[in-house]
Design goal:
Layout: H1 2-54, E1 57-58, E2 68-69, H2 73-80, H3 82-113, H4 120-132, H5 135-146, H6 153-156, H7 175-200, H8 204-212, H9 217-245, H10 249-254, H11 266-274, H12 281-311
Antiparallel strand pairs: 1-2
């Protein structure tokens, strides 16, 4: 009896200890999560809501004063201004051309590098280097290449005389193409990387069965390779389309939006409205939300296409 009476207190004493430990663990979790939630609200949610409010006001960040409510006037000004529509057209043209080239080149490189050969890993690493560089560094690097007097591009193309060489960044007909070339050089490896992941996941037995049935290489590509890679290819196109539509640093580093406004994308126009001399905070906030709506719409189209590809 004495042994039982001694054992009973020890069994009851373990319950409060475990409860105290559970409560302590829960508090530790709260202490880790709470700062993250506060930081998220302060750094993301509050600026998002506040900028939405400013988009309905007439306000300049350097003028001070209280924002004056103007309703939808800023959005009306944006949608009725021909210059804004020109910026959207330039951005759309740039996004379509650059993403199309990156998709074709990236997918082609992935098909070439899918089979292992001597030095394939080293070559793949070299191809991936451009996407690891800062866009401003890339822009300044390519400005030297495009230079008609000292750049290496025009001599490689057969233009020896600097006076008659193409002015890649100064010609209104070539400036946008110059930005597209640089963006394609920089981000085609990203598409290639995702396509390589998709190609590596295709089971070998599919090709073996097709070979037994004497299917042609073209048939294998359309019926096996492309459908299997399509989900990852669409993800690559989605990310590159979003980034191309809000492209800023590469354009500013190469052309600054010029010559004139030939390469003035929506992001460059937004920057000039918000910071470069005008400081029109209300209109720039409204333009930012217009861009956000367009990007969401484009993303939804790609996601629907991605769901169809996965369902197939």
């Amino acid at each position: 009896m004495s042994q039982i009476s001694r054992a009973q207190p020890s069994s009851h004493s373990t319950v409060p200890t475990s409860r105290r430990r559970q409560l302590s663990d829960a508090r530790i979790v709260q202490l880790f999560i709470l700062p993250t939630i506060i930081l998220l609200i302060v750094m993301n949610i509050f600026p998002l809501i506040y900028s939405l409010y400013l988009s309905f006001t007439d306000y300049s960040v350097i003028a001070g004063g209280v924002p004056q409510w103007v309703g939808l006037q800023n959005y009306t000004n944006i949608l009725t201004d021909e210059r804004f529509w020109k910026n959207f057209a330039t951005t759309g043209q740039y996004a379509i051309i650059s993403v199309a080239l990156q998709t074709v080149i990236g997918f082609g490189l992935a098909l070439l590098l899918r089979h292992k050969f001597k030095g394939s890993g080293f070559i793949t690493t070299l191809i991936l280097v451009p996407m690891m560089l800062s866009p401003i560094v890339v822009a300044n690097f390519w400005k030297l290449i495009f230079n008609p007097a000292s750049g290496i591009l025009n001599p490689l193309l057969g233009f020896g005389n600097p006076n008659t060489s193409p002015q890649w960044l100064g010609d209104a007909g070539l400036a946008l193409w110059a930005v597209v070339i640089v963006d394609t050089w920089m981000w085609s490896p990203f598409v290639m990387l995702l396509c390589l992941a998709g190609l590596g996941a295709i089971p070998d037995y599919l090709y073996e069965a097709a070979a037994i049935d004497r299917a042609s290489s073209w048939f294998q590509f359309w019926r096996i390779t492309l459908p299997q890679v399509m989900p990852l290819l669409l993800i690559a196109v989605l990310f590159r389309s979003i980034e191309a539509f809000k492209q800023f640093d590469l354009v500013m580093g190469l052309t600054g939006g010029g010559p004139g406004d030939v390469t003035e994308t929506v992001s460059v126009r937004l920057y000039r409205l918000a910071f470069s001399g005008q400081y029109d905070t209300g209109t720039s906030s409204a333009l930012a939300y217009v861009v956000l709506v367009v990007i969401i719409a484009i993303s939804n189209l790609y996601i629907k296409a991605l769901n169809r590809a996965r369902g197939a």
